[in-house]
Amino acid sequence: MLDQIHLLAAVTVLGVLEQAYFFLQVIYARRAFGISPPKISGPPEFERIFRAQVNSSEYFPIFLALLWQAGLFFHQGLAAALGLVYLYARYRYFVGYKASSSERLAPIYFGTGVLWILVAASVLGILHFFLSHYMGLNILHLLKA
C-alpha cells in the first residue's frame, strides 16, 4: 500500500514546508515594516507579501485534493511530478508577487494550468474506476484492442 502513495506523501510534505516558508515570510515582513497582527494593511511591499501568502494558502487545499485524487486514481508518478511542478510555480508566484504585482501573472497562469491537468487526470482516473468497477468496462483494455 505505501509503495502506491509514497510519492504523493513526499510532495505533500514539500507543499506543507513551502506553506511554512510563506508564513515565515509574512512574519519577517511584519517585523520589517512594523505591522502587528491583526493588521493586514501597510506599505505595498508588505501587502504584496501578505497577499501572496494568503493566495497560496487558499489554493493549497485544492492542490492537495487534486494531487491525491490524480495519484490514487490515475498515476502516482505523473501526479507527483505535476505536484512538484505546481509547487515550483507557486514559489515563483510568491517571489514574483513579492517583487511586483505584475510579476505574479505568468507563474499563476502556469500553476493554474498544472491544476487543470491534475483535474483532467483525476476525472479520467475516477471515470475509469467507475466504468470498470460498476459497469465492467475496462477502457484501457478496449483501447488496446
Any idea what the radius of gyration is? 19 Å
Span between termini: 30 Å
Largest sheet: none
- Compute the average pLDDT: 95
Counted beta strands? 0
**How much β-strand is present in the residues?**
under 5%
Helix count from the secondary structure assignment: 5
SSE sequence, one letter per element? HHHHH
Question: So what's the overall shape?
Answer: elongated
Structural class: mainly alpha
What is the helix content? over 70%
Low-confidence stretches: none
Question: What can you see in these coordinates?
Answer:
There is one protein chain. This protein has 145 residues and is mainly α. Helices cover 81% and strands 0% of the residues. It contains five helices and no strands. It has helices spanning 6-33, 44-73, 76-99, 105-134, 139-144. It is elongated.
SSE blueprint:
Blueprint: H1 6-33, H2 44-73, H3 76-99, H4 105-134, H5 139-144
Helix pairs in contact: 1-2, 1-3, 2-3, 2-4, 3-4
A few lines on this structure:
α1 runs antiparallel to α2 and α3 (76-99) packs antiparallel against α4.
Q: Which descriptors apply to this entry?
A:
145 residues; mainly alpha; 5 helices; 81% helix
